[in-house]
Structure formats: C-alpha cells, structure tokens
Amino acid sequence: MSYATRDNLDALTGNNATRAIPRRLVDRCMAKADAVVDGKLGVLYGVPFGTPYPALIVSIAEELTLYYLYTFTAFAGVAGNTDEARRELYQSAMDMLDKIVSGDIVLTDVTVASSAGYGTRYSQISSNTEDYHPIFDLDDPVDWDIDDDQLTSIEDGRE
After folding, report:
1. Cross-strand bridge partners of residue 45
2. How far apart (Å, rounded) are the C-alpha atoms in residues 125 and 9?
3. Quick check: 113 and 45 in contact, CB under 8 A?
C-alpha cells in the first residue's frame, strides 16, 4: 500500500481531479513517490515504513505523487498548477528528505535500519596504522634480498 492515497490527493487538490486520471497512472505515480522516499531513507530507517505511516512521510509522498501527476498528465493545466508550483512541490519534498537524512529532522516511532544489512551512513569505522608492519616491504631495497638464514629455514622445512 502506498504512503499517499487517492482520497488524500483529492483532499489536497480540493476536487476529485485524481478520479479523472486513470487509476493505473495514479498508482504508478504513487509507487514512484514511495520508491524515492524509501530510496532516500533506506540508509537510516527500515523501509517500507509500517502502518500507521509517519505523517511526515505521508506528506512527502503526497507532494511527490502530485508532482509526478502534474508532470505526466493534462492535470498540469489546472489553474494554479504552474511549472513553478510543480517544482516547488518536488523541491519541498526533496528538501525534507534531505533534512531527515542529514539528521536535522528525526522520525520517531519508526524502525531504524539494521547495521547487519547495508548499514547506515553514520556507522563508525575505526582504523589506525600505528603498529602496522607490512608483510612485503618492497619499498626498502634492503628487504629485496632473501636472508641466508631464511633460505636455510625454508630448505629445512621441506625435508
């Protein structure tokens, strides 16, 4: 089930405009919006989100769905739905997703992504090279020659 619904989209537009658009196209636009939301937030949260969906996610999905509907249909000719208004819908939704990803906005009551799978962008990785000794130190010409004692040890080991 999509984060956005036809009823919510009709309420946002103030009419039953989505009823005039083939259901298949509306469903496709809702699925595309869901994919964008899940793709952006999948690094932080377990997606798809469980029901009830977070209100912010529903709002973002509705904005994206309307953007796609406005873009792909004659629905774009409705008064007040200019190219600028469509871009603002898209940009508003994407800005909100970016704020969630950056941590400026935190979704509550949702499952956080497991670090066992893909992990998160914010996982800590610690590394140092303080006690690192390379097995093959080819940078030092002194190490290019094999020590006679080492050759004897190798021969003894083969016997």
Report:
1. 112
2. 43
3. yes
